[in-house]
Amino acid sequence: MADIAPCNVAAMVDEFGNWDWPRLQSLLPQSVLLHLSATKPPRPGFKGDFPGWARSHDRTFSVRTAYEALRDSSVQSVNAVWKVIAGFRGLQRIKIFIWLLAKEKFLCNAERVRRHLSSCSRCEACGAALESNLSYFPRLSDSRSGLERAD
Question: From the DSSP assignment, how many helices (H) and strands (E) are in the chain?
Fold first, then answer.
């Protein structure tokens, strides 16, 4: 690949408004070119070519908008999880089990290794290199299918 002089994205478009592929092929690896082929080139007459922060109206970054973005995304995902758990109709102990699983409070092998209580993080049931709280789901489905086969 050739050395690239500082330039903006609009400089990589030919006079017809298409990507300047001969120039791009000499500058970029094939994997990047494949991603670029799925992207429309900038149109003439657009504002200047500069990065902008999508979370603010004037496209400038601020710590305030970053915290707002983090707060909004975490609140939405947490609310969805807790709505599912709160809406569960079943035994209270199963609801508590699901709550503990969502809070990642089970002491799985990965957590034991992190706390220096064990040296092996391997999942005993499935043989995966790392056991986590999510490893309990396949175990539950495997045990259920085993019960159904036994009937």
Answer: 6, 0
CB-count exposure of residue 91 (10 Å: 0-12, 13-18, 19+)? exposed
* AA identity, residue 96: I
pLDDT tens for 2-14 read 566 677 777 888 8
d(CA 144, CA 19): 55
Query: pLDDT digits over 63-103, tens only?
Result: 888 888 877 766 666 677 788 888 889 899 988 888 888 88
Say how far apart CA 80 and CA 63 lie, in whole Å. Answer: 26
Ordered alpha helix ranges (H), the chain: 21-27, 30-37, 63-86, 92-102, 109-114, 136-150
pTM, whole model, 2 decimals?
0.36
Longest Cα pair distance anywhere in the chain, in angstroms? 72
Closest CA to 69 of 23, 1, 61: 61
CA separation (Å) from 12 to 47, 78, 99? 16, 42, 52
